[in-house]
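R.M. (postdoc): so does anyone remember the format we settled on? I'll just put the structure tokens first.
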């Protein structure tokens, strides 16, 4: 439950610190003083969407803190696992910092947290009932939620939803593969041709550059061989060849090498040149071997070069890039072949999943069929207590049409629920959304919350003027119902009815005042005397009289007597 709420710079609330106890807590105040912003602070703690214009005009940021005490160890462990943080002693401190520039922050027990994670646990900490809750009550999905909560089927339905999501994922894959089956066949045949052609070509890395160089060498064969022959004659074979002349000069200079260092150096250089030339001249034999060999080699190289150029032009890639293209084609072909093989298996798996879902949906349906009558009778009984003795209420269960879903069910199963209502004798039962007035909706919602009180796991329930559209005659009845719900929940209720306010265990009053020319909201926890004055004013307006004070004291006394009847339940 929520034990402490701190609000800074939110709406007209400059600063407020509120302590809430277990049971029934009431909040009162005139219209426009800031009760709605106080309730907005509670929605902020749930992880609901926020607006920057909620921040007070005098401040760059607003801060909302809520300290919760979680008594259920299993829920503490669940929250810890969801948030990924330790929760010591069952205490959960939620902080949301709102900034006008929009970069809001969220912390839980001091750890930075995403709002999405906060929202996962926030909906299990606080439930807010107001005009939005009444609208949700009119939607079939919200009505099915109520039925399942009354039958304690939420966990089972969540398991069904996970199985349903998995089946839909497989269904999407089957549809995708089936839709693209023809296109995949064309693509597969094309890739098979690519792989066959490039495999057969047997391209090597850097091959085109090597082929081009060898082609150029062979195309200059005759000129090269003639040049080699001339060099060999000049350097070796002719009388007075270059090598002979160098050797002769080396020997002549060597005879005078002792006379001058330069003579010795020249003689040594001649010897080195002779050795170097002799080695390089032997390399000419390699040229002759390479270009003077197989005469058909040139034609083969030209054919290979033409093939490489043709493939490059066809695929718009260089020879080296064609090797990468070949690997990519092989991989894609493998995936397509795998997809063809996977489709029958996926269809079989989908059939198995649908069969499992049908079994699960059937079980949910049978449990819901057993719950609709109990819910209808319980709500009708509560409506009698709420002054609607002649009203009729019925929860009607229908099946989802097969054409609108996978196998005749959605993520909630195979059922739809419609709440039917009749306020007066002689009127036929019609959908609640078509016939209920605002006051009637408030009472139906309260009746449902009373029925769900024992099965709800949410500790804190917030009622925003649930008594709207209801006169003072039924105010005490509404308050008693809220007291009964407060046996198992913490209730925070904003009300304009003194009959409801008098039944609360704790009472906060919201006021507006002007400080230094600025209007601000103040929130006070009222003592017994202050409660008497507030309820007296709620009874008679600003003209508080001794009679209205006596009436307020009597109402508070009756409320305290009722509280004493189940005080032990709240301990």
């Amino acid at each position: 439950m929520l034990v402490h709420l701190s609000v800074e710079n939110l709406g007209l609330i400059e600063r407020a610190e509120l302590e809430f106890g277990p049971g029934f807590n009431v909040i009162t105040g005139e219209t426009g003083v800031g009760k709605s912003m106080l309730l907005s602070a509670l929605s902020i703690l749930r992880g609901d969407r926020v607006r920057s214009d909620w921040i007070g005009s005098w401040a760059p940021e607003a801060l909302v803190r809520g300290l919760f005490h979680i008594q259920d160890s299993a829920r503490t462990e669940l929250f810890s696992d969801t948030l990924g943080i330790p929760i010591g002693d069952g205490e959960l401190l939620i902080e949301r910092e709102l900034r006008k520039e929009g970069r809001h922050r969220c912390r839980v027990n001091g750890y930075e947290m995403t709002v999405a994670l906060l929202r996962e646990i926030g909906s299990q900490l606080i439930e807010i009932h107001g005009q939005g809750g009444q609208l949700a009550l009119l939607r079939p999905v919200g009505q099915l939620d109520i039925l399942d909560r009354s039958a304690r089927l939420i966990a089972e339905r969540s398991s069904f939803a996970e199985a349903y999501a998995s089946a839909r994922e497989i269904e999407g894959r089957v549809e995708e593969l089936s839709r693209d089956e023809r296109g995949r066949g064309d693509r597969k045949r094309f890739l098979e041709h690519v792989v066959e052609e490039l495999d057969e070509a047997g391209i090597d890395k850097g091959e085109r550059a090597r082929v081009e160089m060898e082609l150029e060498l062979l195309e200059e064969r005759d000129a090269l061989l003639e040049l080699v022959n001339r060099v060999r004659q000049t350097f070796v074979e002719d009388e007075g060849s270059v090598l002979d002349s160098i050797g002769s000069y080396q020997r002549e200079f060597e005879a005078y090498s002792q006379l001058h260092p330069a003579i010795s150096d020249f003689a040594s250089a001649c010897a080195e040149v002779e050795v170097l030339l002799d080695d390089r001249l032997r390399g000419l034999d390699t040229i002759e071997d390479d270009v003077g060999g197989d005469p058909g080699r040139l034609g083969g190289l030209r054919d290979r070069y033409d093939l490489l150029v043709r493939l490059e032009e066809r695929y718009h890639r260089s020879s080296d890039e064609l090797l990468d293209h070949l690997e990519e084609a092989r991989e894609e072909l493998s995936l397509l072949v795998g997809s063809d093989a996977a489709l029958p298996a996926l269809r079989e798996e989908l059939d198995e999943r649908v069969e499992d879902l049908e079994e699960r949906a059937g079980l949910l349906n049978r449990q819901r069929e057993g719950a609709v009558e109990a819910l209808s009778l319980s709500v009708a009984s509560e409506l009698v207590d709420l002054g609607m003795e002649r009203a009729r209420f019925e929860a009607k269960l229908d099946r989802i049409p097969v054409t609108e879903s996978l196998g005749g069910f959605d993520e909630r199963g195979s059922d739809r629920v419609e709440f039917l209502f009749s306020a007066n004798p002689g009127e036929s039962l019609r959908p609640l959304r078509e016939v209920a007035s605002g006051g009637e909706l408030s009472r139906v919602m309260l009746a449902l919350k009373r029925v769900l009180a024992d099965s709800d796991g949410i500790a804190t329930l917030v009622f925003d003027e649930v008594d709207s559209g209801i006169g003072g005659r039924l105010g005490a009845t509404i308050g008693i119902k809220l007291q009964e719900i407060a046996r198992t929940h913490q209730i925070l209720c904003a009300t304009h009815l003194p009959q409801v306010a008098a039944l609360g265990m704790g009472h906060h009053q919201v006021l507006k005042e002007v400080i230094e020319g600025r209007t601000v909201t103040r929130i006070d926890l009222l003592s017994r005397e202050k409660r008497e004055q507030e309820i007296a004013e709620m009874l008679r307006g600003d003209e508080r009289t001794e009679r209205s004070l006596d009436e307020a004291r009597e109402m508070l006394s009756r409320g305290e007597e009722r509280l004493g009847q189940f005080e032990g339940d709240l301990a």
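R.M.: ...and that's the designed sequence above, right after the tokens. Also worth knowing: The chain has a mean pLDDT of 84. DSSP finds 21 helices and 15 strands in the chain.
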